[in-house]
Amino acid sequence: xxxxxxxxxxxxxxxxxxxxxxxTALRRAQQPWVAGFILFGGEAEQVARLTAQLxxxxxxxxxxxxxMERGAGQQVRGLTRLPDAGIVGMGGTxxxxxxxxxxxxxxxxxxxxxxxxxxxxxxxxxxxxxxxGNRSYGFDPHRVGVLGASxxxxxSMAGALPVAKHFPGHGATSEDSHETMPxxxxxxxxxxxxxxxxxxxxxxxxxxxxIMTAHVAYPALDESGxxxxxxxxxxxxxxxxxxxxxxxxxVFTDAMIMAGALVEGGEVEAARRALGAGCxxxxxxxxxxxxxxxxxxxxxVLRAPMDRAAGHMATFLERLAAAEDELQRFMPEMDDAAPMxxxxxxxxxxxxxxSWEWPSCLVVIDDDGIEDRGRVLAGHAEAHRPVxxxxxxxxxxxxxxxxxxxxxxxxxxxxxxASARGWKGASGVSPACLEMVDNIQAWLERDIHATSKxxxxxxxxxxxxxxxxxxxxxxxxxxLAEVFFADDEAIDEEGFLPVEAGEGDA
Length: 506
Prior knowledge:
Helices cover 39% and strands 13% of the residues. With 506 residues, the chain is an alpha/beta fold.
């Protein structure tokens, strides 16, 4: 017996492709149990070709979705990488957020992606949260809801469908659900006023047709202590926010491969629990064929939830087709200036005075090994002042040895760029990166007798000194260059003196 209901959403990992990803996806697209795919990575031309082939292979409506909280360039090389949500929360207006959503959807649709797993409307309430960081619009539930609703409206306006996440809120956790099962012990009234409020807004005004659940337990909402993905009480609460007469809400699980969803019985049992709780689409199972085979043999108790889920998916795909039809009739005007406008405001708010302009020397540190990070800022700096682009590696001494001693320069600026990673903790800055910053500052003070400032473009600032911007991205780097190198004053043409042996790893 084969499962004939579209319940599963396998992953396509072009970012980790061993040469089999495309063939595997094309084979799966022909299966009736595939509702769509979630795509990671790839070049724009490659993604456009593959998504067209997937739809042809399916021979029926399917969707192609992707995590694009930071714009289409977050996943697809060649498209625009937008400022992080933390930067939008700091320097953006609702109109800006709508423009960013529309730009994301327009570029996503240009390569065949029509479902955007964003906005992230988790309120950043737990200061030690290790995974949310710059993915959140901020600490104020009202502002998070307004910006999230605006981003979602922009996505819809440009012909794609947004998915709000992670219901009922991942912001109050002190653990990462990729690695474990977090528990939020906040009382019900606190969850309602803080974490649930943005979702209630988005669902109540109809800005999102779907949500993604959190693999997090909330005993105040479900005293059984099960995660939201497996909780009928919590999933039903999301549906209660949808106004009467509006289309059915589609509920995605978060990725089934995450540790927060691991149960005895593995993925099959997790799938059973999620469907039984009211979830409709099983996102990113590790072994979708095995899950589909097990669900095909499900007893009568599970058949009703599976039929319900298939009905909700059909409604979702109809809304997707309607959004595409509407786009053909009305092409919205795009505000492509929004990313720079938001980045400029955030930079000016963070740096404040002119005291950050014209550093004698600039050091940019990438804490994540992201290929292009820091290159925009470094490119601008090279025309004005000495610049050093460093990566946090297993050999910090080799990186630090790249530093040179400019003659007569006295003020240095260190810019640290990092993203949220569960193992790094709340700041998003690794111990190796912190050590690198300490060594640079010690070397400057001891051997160069130079002053230094640190700008943390990270999920959370470090220490009481320096400045902080909650995020990074090319537009932020452009905005920083405008502040650091604001005019064309004469540049000191003195040469560099290499750091002598041993000085680089002080």
